[in-house]
Design brief:
It is a single chain. The chain is mainly β and 239 residues long. It has three helices and twelve strands. It has a six-stranded antiparallel beta barrel with strand order 1-2-7-6-3-8. It has a four-stranded mixed sheet with strand order 9-12-11-10. Strands 4-5 form a two-stranded antiparallel sheet.
């Protein structure tokens, strides 16, 4: 059986700088990002009519799946985080990145197509893609066929619970200065709070004394997670 070769049509530019912290499904966080198209796909004619659609399907590659199946034996079962990381189920009953083909599928909200110099960019919100993710296709979302109102979603029927996000007093001062000097925007603050509210920890970790760190946009963020709250205890601009 021969391998299938897919072209890369563009690359995602998003504030998610590492896998830790990325929402486990699209549209849980209304983060803004854009796809920068590469030649010969950076042609505005290829997007004629796309403005008539509110949402798009993105087909993409798990390009930094260091523990994926490349040169490894096929794993028929995985441990979904939504089940606490303790229960194994079949890989084809999950959206795990550890699968025979490192291909992902996400629905996002379409914002606009914009030409920036020689570059063509497709702006979207709600993506769950790491910065630099290769995009292999873009397709319009069709409401009457793609949205199934009575669909059953197994162990993931309901959206995950969210925690309250607070800023420690000294970090609130740093945040205000960064906002005042326009080193970060209110949008970045809101997106960061949405990401942290989903509790990015692995399901098996439950240590309230542990300090977690995450890169988001131009920030190094340190935080602690309690039963109902996420506390941001430090932020540093990435140089």
């Amino acid at each position: 059986m021969s391998d299938l070769c897919l072209p890369i049509i563009g690359y995602m530019h998003s504030p998610y700088q590492e896998k830790f912290g990325i929402p486990r499904q699209p549209n849980l966080v209304q983060v803004e990002s854009y796809i920068e198209m590469v030649e010969p796909y950076n042609d505005l004619l290829a997007f004629e009519g796309i403005e008539e659609f509110s949402h798009l399907w993105l087909v993409w590659q798990f390009h930094e799946n260091k523990n994926g199946n490349e040169n490894h034996k096929f794993r028929s079962q995985v441990r979904p985080p939504r089940l606490g990381g303790n229960k194994k189920i079949g890989v084809f009953a999950t959206r795990s990145m550890y699968r025979p083909a490192p291909i992902g599928l996400s629905v996002v909200q379409f914002k606009m197509v914009k030409k920036v110099g020689k570059s063509v960019r497709v702006y979207v919100t709600g993506s769950d893609l790491l910065n630099g993710t290769p995009i292999v296709d873009i397709k319009p979302y069709i409401q009457y066929s793609d949205a199934i109102s009575d669909a059953k979603s197994g162990y993931a029927q309901q959206e995950p619970d969210r925690k309250n996000v607070i800023w420690s007093e000294n970090v609130q001062f740093i945040l205000n200065e960064l906002l005042k000097t326009q080193k970060i925007t209110q949008q970045i603050q809101n997106e960061l709070e949405q990401v942290l509210s989903l509790d990015p920890r692995p399901a098996y970790q439950d240590d309230e004394s542990r300090v977690y760190k995450m890169k988001f946009s131009d920030l190094d963020v340190s935080f602690k997670i309690y039963q109902q709250t996420v506390e941001i205890i430090d932020i540093v601009m990435i140089s």
